[in-house]
Each structure stands twice: as C-alpha cells, then as structure tokens.
C-alpha cells in the first residue's frame, strides 16, 4: 500500500490537484481499498459508499453493514459465525469508526448483539448487504461482491 500511496500522491501533485479535498487520501480510505485479481472496491466520495470501478457503480451501506463488509474484506479466508465472538474487538473498532454514535456503551452493546448466540443481527445485515449489491449490480455481477456461506461453513466474499 505504501508504494501505491506514493504513486497516487505523485500523480496528484503532477496534476496540481493535490489541494482538492475530494482527492485527499485518508488512512481510512487506504484501509478500505480491497483489490483482487477480478474486482476492485474503493470507498466512494461520500460516507457509506463503495465505488465498484469495474461496474461503474456506487453501493451505499449503513454503518453496521459497512462494518461487516470491511470485516470480511479483512478476512478473505472467511469466518464461521461461531468465531465472531473471537473477533469482537476488531468488529468493535470497525464499528466505532463507522458509527454515528458517540456512546461507547451503545456501540459495545451493538457489537455484543451482533456476536450473540442468535446471530439475528448478523444474518439480517448479511442479507441486506446481499440485496443492496444485487439491486445495484444485478444477480450475475453481485455474486462477486456478496458475503456468502461456503460449504466449509465459513462466510466470505467470493471475489
């Protein structure tokens, strides 16, 4: 990523666009860039948006959906639902960054409910993410971006 940051910075300086706020590179946007041999997902120009340059599409996700999506981008190997509790700190930090709440207790409670035994919040948000990508891209293109359960029981993004 460091090499890519230097390359992008040099491009911006060469074009005299370095001072434009829309083109500033932030730590968060560098963390959320995910590249694979097939697809790219880049943060959009507004909070909550993901730009899919291959499909020239923006997909909006709410804070919990962004938290889960970013979590699975960080874990391409996939995660079983029972293992969510072992990752609660990572989920909490992702959610604290994405959330509009300032109340740490409320954020902690939300993540505890996400990782709870029933997994209702987890399944609901996975379903919402799936529907948003299908609505934006259609079923054929969306299959490369949605979080699905694989035969080994792990949830992951197909990419």
Describe this structure in words.
The chain is α+β, with helices and mostly antiparallel strands. The chain folds into 2 domains: 1-31; 33-157, Arc Repressor Mutant, subunit A (Orthogonal Bundle). 48% of the residues lie in helices and 13% in strands. The protein is built from 7 helices and 6 strands. The chain has a 4-stranded antiparallel beta sheet. β5 (147-149) and β6 (155-157) form a beta hairpin. It is globular, with a radius of gyration of 17 Å. The protein starts with a helix and ends with a strand.
Give a topology summary.
Elements: H1 2-14, H2 27-32, E1 34-35, E2 40-43, E3 49-52, E4 57-60, H3 63-74, H4 88-98, H5 104-115, H6 120-137, H7 139-142, E5 147-149, E6 155-157
Antiparallel strand pairs: 1-2, 2-3, 3-4, 5-6
Largest sheet: 4 strands, antiparallel
Strand order of the largest sheet: 1-2-3-4
Runs in which pLDDT lies below 50 for 5 or more consecutive residues are 1-38
CA-atom Rg in angstroms: 17 Å
CATH class of the largest domain: Mainly Alpha
CATH topology of the largest domain: Arc Repressor Mutant, subunit A
Question: Looking at the structure, what is the overall shape?
Answer: globular
Order of helices and strands: HHEEEEHHHHHEE
End-to-end CA span: 19 Å
Task: Work out the helix count.
Answer: 7
Strand elements, count: 6
Number of domains: 2
Structural class: alpha+beta
């Amino acid at each position: 990523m460091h090499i890519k940051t230097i390359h992008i910075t040099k491009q911006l300086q060469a074009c005299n666009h370095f001072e434009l706020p829309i083109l500033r590179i932030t730590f968060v946007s560098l963390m959320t860039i995910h590249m694979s041999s097939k697809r790219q997902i880049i943060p959009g120009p507004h909070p909550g948006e993901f730009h899919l340059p291959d499909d020239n599409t923006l997909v909006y996700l709410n804070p919990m959906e962004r938290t889960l999506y970013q979590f699975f981008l960080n874990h391409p190997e996939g995660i079983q639902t029972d293992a969510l509790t072992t990752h609660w700190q990572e989920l909490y930090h992702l959610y604290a960054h994405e959330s509009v709440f300032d109340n740490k207790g409320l954020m902690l409670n939300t993540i505890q409910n996400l990782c709870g035994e029933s997994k209702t919040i987890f399944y609901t948000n996975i379903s919402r993410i799936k529907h948003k990508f299908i609505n934006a891209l259609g079923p054929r293109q969306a299959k490369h971006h949605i979080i699905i359960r694989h035969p080994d029981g792990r949830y992951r993004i197909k990419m």
